[in-house]
């Protein structure tokens, strides 16, 4: 069983069985034929469709299709995702950051963010000089800067809190 969320926010349940495909519990009858490496001709309810798989991200479980020229993205949840949802563990692999600590002793050369600023994983947040080398510290996850605990030209110790999220 799969749960699919479409770009317009609709959630559909797909159950692929040996003899049939069920869409929201009802039989989904269609005729599908490949016409290219990622392109298919589909007949459903006496209507003809051309579907092309534009992008597939198997890790994020998102698939983008172009159906008769209209682009649609679907988000797929398999039985394991549904079980994690049921157990309340759906967002366990999202990194929740609360603070960034100094990885080594050094001198703060530059602060690239401000309180209230939203940062994404990998965004540069600070430049720390250690052993005569400049190290760009990057955000370990997505978040909003709540407080900056250091100033430019301040010496810091290893594991000292630099930024709170």
Topology:
Layout: E1 2-6, E2 11-16, E3 21-23, E4 26-27, E5 31-34, E6 39-44, E7 47-57, E8 62-67, E9 70-77, H1 79-86, E10 99-101, E11 106-111, E12 118-119, E13 124-130, E14 133-138, E15 143-144, E16 147-148, E17 155-156, E18 161-164
Antiparallel strand pairs: 1-2, 1-9, 2-3, 3-4, 5-6, 6-7, 7-8, 8-9, 10-18, 11-13, 11-17, 12-15, 13-14, 16-18
Proportion of helical residues: under 10%
Order of helices and strands: EEEEEEEEEHEEEEEEEEE
Strand order of the largest sheet: 4-3-2-1-9-8-7-6-5
The parts where pLDDT drops under 50 for at least 5 residues are none
Structural class: mainly beta
Q: Average pLDDT value?
A: 87
Overall geometry: elongated
Total domains: 2
- Helical region count? 1
**Largest β sheet strand count, sense and barrel closure:** 9 strands, antiparallel
Strand content: over 45%
Distance between the termini: 38 Å
Number of strands: 18
- The value of Rg in angstroms is 24 Å
Main attributes?
four-stranded antiparallel beta sheet; mainly beta; 165 residues
Could you walk me through the main structural features you see in this protein, from its secondary elements to its overall organization?
This protein is mainly beta and 165 residues long. It has 2 domains: 85 residues, no CATH class; 66 residues, RNA polymerase II/Efflux pump adaptor protein, barrel-sandwich hybrid domain (OB fold (Dihydrolipoamide Acetyltransferase, E2P), Beta Barrel). The protein has 1 helix and 18 strands. The strands form 4 sheets. The protein has a 9-stranded antiparallel sheet with strand order 4-3-2-1-9-8-7-6-5. A 4-stranded antiparallel sheet has the order 14-13-11-17, with no helix packed on it. Strands 10-18-16 form a 3-stranded antiparallel sheet, with no helix packed on it. The longest helix is centred in the middle third of the chain and has 8 residues. The radius of gyration is 24 Å and the shape is elongated.
